[in-house]
Amino acid sequence: MKFNTKTIHGGQEHDPAYGAVMPPIYQTTTYAQSTPGGHKGFEYSRTHNPTRTALENSLASIENGKHGLAFASGMASIDAVIKLLEPGDEVISTNDLYGGTYRLFTKVYEKYGIKFHFIGMENAAKIETYINANTKLIWIETPTNPMLNVIDIKSIAALARTRQILLAVDNTFATPYLQQPLTLGADIVMHSATKYLGGHSDVVMGALVVNDDDLAEKLAFLQNASGAVSGPQDCFLMLRGIKTLHIRMQRHCENGKKVAEFLADHPKIEKVYWPGFKDHPNHDIAKSQMKDFGGMLSFITIGNDYNEAIRIVENLRLFTLAESLGGVESLSGHPASMTHASIPKEEREKTGVVDSLIRLSVGIEDAEDLIDDLKQALN
Ligand SMILES: *Cc1c(COP(=O)(O)O)cnc(C)c1O
Question: Which of 203, 221, 242 is at the close of a domain?
Fold first, then answer.
C-alpha cells in the first residue's frame, strides 16, 4: 500500500459488530468477561480501547512501523521514551529543541540522574565525541523548531546502530508524508499528533511508532503503568484527521513555498529560514530525505527590532497569533516570548532564536490571501 492509501486504509478494518466504516467511539472504561480472564482482547481502557487500537494501527501504518502507541499529549509520549532510561544514563540531543522537550529533559529528568547533552548536529562526527558507555539515547528533531535546521537521519542512525544507542526522531514538523524516520534507520518515531496529524487544532495527543517488538512491549508497559493515554473521542478525531494528511500536507508545502519566496523578496526582511531554499545550509539533506519542504518557516526583519516583530504579529489578520502549528489555519508565533520562553535567552540566541524571530505555520488557505495579509502587516 502506498502512503496516500495508507492514510485512509492503513491498519483499518471495518468494525466487526456492524461493519461501521469509521471505527466507533468506544466510550467505555471496561469490558464484560464471561469468566475471569474470558474477554475479547479488551479489559480496561487505560490498557486498551478499540478506538485507540484502531488509531494505533493507523499510526504504525503511516510511519512504516509495526507498533503504534497513542498518548495524552506529545509530551506524554516523550516522557514514556525517557522512562526507558535509568539514573546514570546519558542522552545526546539537538541544541535547538522544542522548548517543552528541553524543559522536560532539564527540569524533570536531570533530577532523576539522567544527563543530557545539547549539541549542534550538522555532522555525525561531532556527535561521536559525546558518546560514552553511558549513552543510551540520541533524541533529534528535524526540521528543528523554529530554526528549520535539517538533520541527516540516515547518518545518525548508522552511528547509533554501531554503538547500540537508540535513535528517537520527533517527526512532528515533517510528518510521515515528508519523511519516514524508521525507514531511514531510526528506532523510535515520536509525534505531537496535536499538530499536523490531527491537523484541525482540536486535539492534543502524542504518538510513538516503533518496529522492534521488545521496545514496543517496554513502551506499552510504560504507557499502561503511567497511564497518560488518549481517550476514545480524541482517537476518533485523530483518525479522521489522518485521512486527509496527504492532501493537507501537499497544500501546506505549496503555500509554504509561495510565502517563503514572497518574504525572501520583501525589502524589510533580513532572512527567511526555510529548507527549500538552495542556500539553506542543509538543503541537500532536506532534498534527499524529505519529499518536499513543508509549511513551516521563520524569518527575521532588517534591524532585528523586537518591537517591530511584535507589531507585525499583532497586525496579521489571517495568520492568528497563537501557540501551536500544523492546523489547516495559518498561525504566527514569536518564539522568544512564546514557545521558547522556557529556554534561557543566552541559550536561545546561540541557536538563532533572536528577539525579532517570527515563526509561521502556513495553512491551507489561498496563498494569495496569506501573502496579502503579510504585505499589509509588514507595511
Ligand atoms: C508541540 C510539540 C511537542 C509537544 O507536543 P504536545 O502535543 O504539545 O504535548 C513536541 N515536539 C514538537 C516539535 C512540537 O511542536
Answer: 242
| pLDDT bracket for residue 347 (50, 70, 90) | confident
- pLDDT-derived band at 238 (thresholds 50, 70, 90) equals very high
Residue with cell 549542534: 120
Residue pointed to by grid coordinates 561521536: 128
Q: Does residue 98 line the site of ligand 1, with CB under 6 A?
A: yes
**CATH, residue 156:** 3.40.640.10
Q: Which of 195, 140, 171 is nearest to 64 (CA)?
A: 171
Euclidean distance between CA atoms 173 and 184, whole angstroms: 16
40 is catalytic: no
CA of 333 to the centre of ligand 1 (A): 14
Q: Is 314 exposed, middle or buried (0-12, 13-18, 19+ CB in 10 A)?
A: exposed
Would you say 310 and 365 are in contact if contact means Cβ atoms under 8 Å apart?
no
Our answer on whether the CB atom of 170 is closer than 6 Å to any ligand 1 atom is yes
Which residues neighbour 355 within 8 Å (Cβ) at sequence distance 6 or greater? 304, 306, 309, 336
Closest by CA to 245, choosing from 207, 218, 273, is 207
pLDDT at position 106: 96
| pTM of the complete model | 0.96
The letter for the amino acid at 307 is N
Residue 251 has pLDDT above 80, yes or no: yes
What is the distance between the alpha carbons of residues 269 and 371, in angstroms, rounded to a whole number? 14
- The rounded distance, in Å, linking the Cα atoms of 42 and 31 is 6
Cα distances (angstroms) measured from residue 98 to each of 105, 224, 324: 11, 26, 11
Task: Identify the domain containing residue 259 by its residue range.
Answer: 245-378
Domain count, the chain: 2
